[in-house]
Amino acid sequence: MVTINDVANAAGVAPSTVSYVISGKRSISPKTRRLVEESIRKLGYHPHAGARALASSKTNVLALVVPLRTDLNVAVVMEFVAAAVTAARAHDQDLLLLTKDEGPAALQRVASSAIADALMVMDVEAADPRVPMLIALDLPVVLIGVPDHPAGLSCVDLDFTAAGAACVAHLADLGHRSIALIGPSPAVYRRGTSYATRFLRGFDEAAQGRGVRAVSRPCAHSYEAVSACLDELLAADPGLTGLVVHNEAVLPGLLSDLRHRGLRVPQDISVVAVCPDTMAEQHPVALTTVAIPAEEVGAQAVEMTMRRLGGHTTPEVRLLGPRLTRRDSTAAPRT
Amino acid sequence: MVTINDVANAAGVAPSTVSYVISGKRSISPKTRRLVEESIRKLGYHPHAGARALASSKTNVLALVVPLRTDLNVAVVMEFVAAAVTAARAHDQDLLLLTKDEGPAALQRVASSAIADALMVMDVEAADPRVPMLIALDLPVVLIGVPDHPAGLSCVDLDFTAAGAACVAHLADLGHRSIALIGPSPAVYRRGTSYATRFLRGFDEAAQGRGVRAVSRPCAHSYEAVSACLDELLAADPGLTGLVVHNEAVLPGLLSDLRHRGLRVPQDISVVAVCPDTMAEQHPVALTTVAIPAEEVGAQAVEMTMRRLGGHTTPEVRLLGPRLTRRDSTAAPRT
DNA sequence: TGCCATCGTCGATGCGCTTCGACTCGCACA
DNA sequence: TGTGCGAGTCGAAGCGCATCGACGATGGCA
Question: HTH lacI-type domain spans which residues (chains A, B) (predicted)?
């Protein structure tokens, strides 16, 4: 392995000088700098991560805790992860993947063995059991999602409450008087997953505010579940004209089932989906959506983390405003 | 931070003794062991990863290179990743995420800064430009996928050639005489992505062997692309009765479109899908599938990596036999 | 001409751990 | 009684780097 000493010898300077060239923490004459940089390139030198971590107490690694559940949407999770790695690399950090399944102990382990400099946590629940422990850790922590009591932790997420309201507002503006929310699977609600409950609240409040009849149902993502869910909804209110779908995985089945029932979108029933924009055009009818800005959230999470690492200590909660894009799946109800 | 010295002091032994208790590399009296273990627990000691890496030249970190493309199936990628982290943790390793976008240089960097002990690489292309560099690296490398010339690298994957053949055999056995393959998006073929070309080869050879008329089309995953693809296929051969779909993302659109055309599955047309088993039941018709054993492949990749790390130096190529599960989407063609 | 500040560089130290050689027992065996 | 040996423990060295204090050279100013 090529070490800083090899570089120093090749360049005819002291190892510490090489170190300063790399870090830029002291001024270096242009001549020396050139000499050293050339040696680095020629030898293909990369500082030993362990040694660097030991000497500087910094690893340049960010840990990301992801859920492995299959009952929430994998594609969205993947988008977050992708955005996070990309953003992390842009800040010269690497990304360590942890799973929610390992529980709070894993967070302890990572923190106290100095594997990573900071923690980013996805799939946050309203009363997340990891929160107290995360606070106790003295690492920078950024939550993707918002628990009931973030108490000192930074959070970033789509403003799901506003998103729920936006969906209702759109349908109400079009003239719909009876709408329904098809949500994530029951297990997601049972866990108190933060985005699900926040969306539901926004939906309910807005519906009440607008005087729109509104019901909601969780829905697992098998075809049968979707079908059963629609059965119930239509039986409960045959005058239903608008659907808000906060569950990307059921969209294909849902649209297919609606057509099967002879319900045309949007003529007979309007559909607003909450999903990444990339999914909007994959269906026979281009969907009106409120976008889940996974990419932006991921990038912001990294950015907030870097700020914390840079000494910016006050925690912040960033809620990204929802963006509704009207496409072909919503229209005024037939009178 | 609590160090090995703190533990040693608390237990009244030398630091090296603590180290030996942890590593088990020398015998320790039961009494001492108990004493030390108790101190470790009481103090919440975790060895400093950097220091450990520096002293032992082992990081206990595995790097996984994932593709970030959206033109291949994210859900499957996610399954791999999930399986890999889980398996890695079971071997007491952490998982570092790298992206294919960073190119070969990133692999160099990770290798020569000793960030990880080994590399696992997904989305391998037939003539993957990373292969020569990976060989030059003296880290254990395991490819998920098989390039044309693996030359000394370990590989693991589903045997896609056999999978292609299995799909044909199933349809041929049922009596189909004209079938078509709907493959991944054109870009995937253009890159020479290993699994796509291998599957196609198996499909073609088997069709020829069985005397079945067979054509194939790549297909992007927008609804229009699916529709256009079906138009072409049906125009080219109105007697088409069997479809092999090696592109999970188009399944919903495809099924929906078939119904739209008045083609019932399986009465009018049979469909065999290549996808993770979990997706088989999410459609109005439960799909006959050849499973993509993402979980097993991921686990095997980790296992092979650990073997290499354990000193087992001979590279191996493991191809997992395809498993076809018959469900409701295939039947004998109407005569 | 002499003094001080600044710039650029060097050497030494220590981060927390693993590992190697050495040392001390206690025991079996001759 | 002496010798050999293995089990159990210790101390020291060193892994590759960042960082701090120190030092020589240079230039500005009086």
Answer: 2-56
Mutate to test the interface with B, among A112, A248, A251, A302 (most CBs of B within 10 A): A112
Nearest CA distance, B127 vs chain A (angstrom) = 25
CA distance A169 to chain B (A): 28
Measured to protein CB atoms, the chain C nucleotides within 7 Å are 7-12, 14-21
Q: How far apart are the first and last CA of chain A?
A: 77
Retrieve residue B305's tokens.
Answer: 């990596």
Q: C-alpha angle with apex A271: A266 to A272, nearest 5 degrees?
A: 135
Phi (first) and psi of residue B277, to 5 degrees: -60, -30
Over residues B277-328, the pLDDT tens digits come to 988 888 889 999 999 999 999 999 999 999 999 988 899 999 999 999 999 9
pLDDT tens per residue across span A224-268: 999 999 999 999 999 999 999 999 989 988 998 998 899 999 999
Q: Across the 335 residues of chain A, what is the mean pLDDT of every consecutive 10-residue run?
A: 97 97 95 97 98 97 90 81 96 97 94 97 93 93 94 94 98 98 94 94 98 96 91 95 95 90 95 92 92 96 96 92 98 91
CB < 7 A from strand D, the residues are A 1, 3-5, 15-16, 19-20, 22-23, 25, 45, 47-48, 51-52, 54-56; B 12-17, 20, 26-29, 31-33, 51, 54-55
In this prediction, the residues of chain B whose per-residue pLDDT falls under 70 are 70-72
Residue A108 tokens, joined: 């302890």
From CA A226, how far away is CA B45, in angstroms rounded?
49
In Å, how far are A261, A263, B135, B170, B194 from B149, measured between CA atoms?
53, 54, 11, 31, 11
In whole angstroms, give the CA distance from residue B185 to residue B174.
28
